[in-house]
Fold this protein.
Amino acid sequence: MRHFLNLREHSPAALRALADRALMIKRGEATPGAIKGRTLVMLFFNSSLRTRASFEAAMGRFGGSAIVLNVGSDTWSLETRDGVRMDGDAPEHVREAAAVLGRYGDAVAVRSFATMRDHGADFADAIVRAFAAYADVPVISMESASEHPCQGLTDWVTMIEQLRETRGRRFTLTWAPHVKPLPMAVPHSAVLAAAAAGMLVTIARPRGYALRPEIMATARQWAAAGGGSIEETENHTDARRGADVLYVKSWGAAFADNAGPVNNPNLADWLVTRDHLGQDTRLMHCLPVRRNVVIADDALDDPRSVVIDQAENRLWAQAAILDAVFNAERGA
Amino acid sequence: MRHFLNLREHSPAALRALADRALMIKRGEATPGAIKGRTLVMLFFNSSLRTRASFEAAMGRFGGSAIVLNVGSDTWSLETRDGVRMDGDAPEHVREAAAVLGRYGDAVAVRSFATMRDHGADFADAIVRAFAAYADVPVISMESASEHPCQGLTDWVTMIEQLRETRGRRFTLTWAPHVKPLPMAVPHSAVLAAAAAGMLVTIARPRGYALRPEIMATARQWAAAGGGSIEETENHTDARRGADVLYVKSWGAAFADNAGPVNNPNLADWLVTRDHLGQDTRLMHCLPVRRNVVIADDALDDPRSVVIDQAENRLWAQAAILDAVFNAERGA
Amino acid sequence: MRHFLNLREHSPAALRALADRALMIKRGEATPGAIKGRTLVMLFFNSSLRTRASFEAAMGRFGGSAIVLNVGSDTWSLETRDGVRMDGDAPEHVREAAAVLGRYGDAVAVRSFATMRDHGADFADAIVRAFAAYADVPVISMESASEHPCQGLTDWVTMIEQLRETRGRRFTLTWAPHVKPLPMAVPHSAVLAAAAAGMLVTIARPRGYALRPEIMATARQWAAAGGGSIEETENHTDARRGADVLYVKSWGAAFADNAGPVNNPNLADWLVTRDHLGQDTRLMHCLPVRRNVVIADDALDDPRSVVIDQAENRLWAQAAILDAVFNAERGA
């Protein structure tokens, strides 16, 4: 594995091997030895708490070091278009920035969110793709417009940890209200992970909030190959009932034509409460979560919520990813 | 010792042991071995120069690593109230943030200044207390509204280094003018340290600038138990005369009802000059210091000023604190 | 070598030894062993991508650690004048900041750009000089108003790598257009490096854009001693023809009296294109570069462009500098 830009361009088998390896590292049964002595350059176009801290912790814990560069969405930008006369805001082209940072680190990790303005352009993941093209080292996405693959792999790790066998288990992704429209990267990767895991996937979301068709197509293909299934519904009550995993996430209708606002009062009953948890349901969310807007206190504070374990697993999933890309680099 | 949130909830004996250990580490007679291989997560709600650099230096020098997260007071905030519907500015509750960061690090250090708007709420140290409640690892305060305990321990270290025997020596804390009202965390911890050290403490400050009564009560109790004393005066001339330690600090009358502004021309003679130093006085200040507003050049540049040694001791005091909390964690 | 504040206060022979050492480190023929276990404190008054990442990479790769402090040009400032009453924006004097940071690190690296408002004051490099005066450890300039010495040494390293023998080879520094006036630190150090390397130096720039006379005087002296030469011309076409190294850089006429704007349409033909490259010309630029404003795509993407190798060499040049200052410190 050279780059780790998303889940959809890897095979379910390769992702499963990474997830298993992450759990072995967590239990102390394996060591990500390729991290030792390596340098990871992390470039953030958007702010981060968990992603940054968990990557730094993974590098530091296993003997590597991390260089963190906060670009700041307002203060500096990289030109991604070819052939333009660069007399605007961007003082540097991504070709140079990627090539240079690739000389300073053994891998480069990049976060560049969806702009939410041009959905087609967002989905092309220009910044992350350009880094993969121009840096001479492995590139890891720390979330782009199309996916949040480190989160998606973490979700799979967490479901294996919680359920042991994931095949044939019920995974419900449920949309939730929010104060503003959010990108779709997290639900995209979560659905792909559940499909790759052979789960019976239900996506509950209001009319107009469909996920991106390209992602759904891959998820359906993976589900079919792995013994799982994909369904979509606008009825959250039925969808939540009996779920082994209830994965809650809000997203704006970023790629849809006629969606309403995410804080539409008519959608207020999409809030997830303890009443929606079955006896053995595990409640998952990528965090941060707005309490009593997205999920009610009584659900989040219930023992069936595994959101803290899920967040911890970022560390272990990323240790497995780093080990894999550094090993591939060493072999190249 | 599990957490290090303030001085007042530890015993003078335990604090003295830490101070002695810091000096042994400084002299190379002891090694804070528990730091090796450990990760400290540092979360700043307010900016920092000395605190951040000295913690990072302590971790790096003894084989650990530090993760620094600058929250920024304006860009992000954590909800601390329970049960609220989080539809405002704060995208995350401190319950989740604390629990997650505790999974990534072996200890979490937090800085959260007084808001200076609601004194009672400030003194409750909600952010730091929430981290201690929800993170599953030791929590260290890098300054909250009520105290700056790492500074206070450093001050004690510095006084032992300078005076050898502190019991019965004269410690004068003197208020000084400033361009804006500052929090009381530093003078609170300094007075507690001097009281714990058995010193004859005098607090010189204008009418209306009393320190917080809870802090004064503990200081009086410690002084009584340790052979020292606590006095307050509005006459800075008498108070400074003959001091073994002249500790200068400005603070706003944050918890007082009828204080005037800190840059009141009537208070300009509270500026500390070389004339206020006795033959053997040590001049202390936590830095940063506004020259010729708080302390005059001739005093700061005098050999009796130990402010640079005092700042260096942050490194050694914090090495001792880190070693203690990591050791306790290991034993738990 | 105690401090590394600029090129002009070192001897060409000492700088050449550093450049050779950098190449040996790059090739794995030498190890900068003095970096191991050391702490570098980096203080940025201006933002940075390459400088910060390459210094952190050099420290991390060879077993040291780096503490990065971003002062931010707007949010905080250090007073540099002596004797003033500090009742303005600056909460701390450089005397204290330098002395304290010197206690936390084994060396301090500082970046403080030209203000472009007061050219004489800029050239005095007050911040960097104050750090050298008040920190008790070696100080490295990461660019001040007068020079960017780490870049200049890197340029020399790159030219040795590319040309093997630099004496008698043709070095052309050519001014280029930009969207705003930039400081002269980079061209100053580049010209000094080329002069020290015994090259035939031509500086092509519009009328009114002369470099600082003090720098030119040193460059002429070094060129005379080393078998090289210094010429200045306003004719970029002749200057570029036959250059072994074409070094492109824009600068504002910061120290000149009657210069026009850098984006003057009459100067648009100073843009460097592939047509300006001779068969064996190496194209150099310190980056970041605005494509098609400063250098055209066809030149930057030509195999004769060595800008990425040049940027990589920052890492190796700085490893040599750090090793030298830490070794000197150890010997002191």
Remarks:
- Chain A has two domains: 12-147+313-331, 150-310.
- The first strand of chain A starts at residue 39 and ends at 44.
- Chain A has a mean pLDDT of 92.
- Chain A has eleven helices and eleven strands.
